[in-house]
Amino acid sequence: MSDDYNMSMRKFLKQVGVTSQQAIDDAMRAAGSEVTAGKSFTATMVLKVDGLDLEHRVEGTIHGRGDD
To answer: What is the reported pTM?
Structure first.
């Protein structure tokens, strides 16, 4: 695999991870600990790649924030 491919893949995945975590943190903070503490939330991420026949779905659970 080419260096360009590897670097572009790593850059994209890092961006997905960082921006997704920021979005989740912002939503948890906005909802407040009275809504999120002690609760779990189902999260779904769908990855689509234009030009390729790809739709990849990842589901998981995120536990709510406590007081902080």
So the answer is: 0.83
